[in-house]
Amino acid sequence: MTDFPVRPGGADAVLAAARVRRLRRALASGGAALALTAVPLVVVASAGAPRNDSLVAVSPTVTSQPAEAPASASPSASASSSDPTPSPPSSAASPTSSPPAVPEASEDTESPVISRPATTPRPPRQSAAAPVTRSSSTIETVDLCDGGLTDATSSWCARYTGPATARRGQSVLLSFELCRYPTAGDATISYDSELEVDAYVGSYDTPDWRAGQGIAYSATPHSEVLRAGSCIVWSSPWDTRGADGFLVVPGEYSFSGSANAVQGLPGASGSFRVVA
Known about the structure:
Elements: H1 11-30, E1 34-36, E2 41-42, E3 56-57, E4 62-64, H2 75-82, E5 133-138, E6 156-160, E7 165-167, E8 172-180, E9 187-191, E10 197-202, E11 207-210, E12 222-226, E13 230-238, E14 251-259, E15 268-275
Parallel strand pairs: 7-15
Antiparallel strand pairs: 1-4, 2-3, 5-13, 6-8, 8-13, 9-12, 10-11, 10-14, 14-15
């Protein structure tokens, strides 16, 4: 029978080496890439220590290495699988188009002048022009004047000689006359202007119509002699429109007229009806 030499450490050293081999096989079979550092066996020996003293085995230090990505995988594919949010496009690759800049207006900048065709302003509506015409007539001693005056009480006779009715929308000739009674003798009449009468329809301040409207008369004083028994008749047309240019409503209207004389002669008054 052959005797084998007894190594230091004996069975403990053998068991420690076996444990290291099992650990390496377990790591290799799991597929993990682990680096194993050397496992030194430190034998603690003391002088005079018995041979069966236990050996102190230092556990191996295992350093974990990161697993490498497969060679077929690209950085872009890895990024897309881990982060589903797409990256914003680069400003250099696709520049964003911006609207053209609008120049700011300054105080020195003049506003553009917009030319418009010239328009003629419409004149305000008004009644038609009413030129005054004159004619002559005679008077008898027994003729009555406005107010019931006769030659026994006055030397002058003024009376309305226009129509009693007027058709709305049609022109009507309004007139009055100033007479000198046969027994009164001749008389001189002096006027302040070429417009010898002041005749109107309605109120004096706001008349619907006035004789001579729309006509420019010069302020030329003049005089004339009216013979006894003679009359001066002044006439002027009215289109039955008011001062606003619209037709007047049907109804009763008053007329007033007098000579623009410096002598303060009597005036005539009357009324007529405007019918539709």
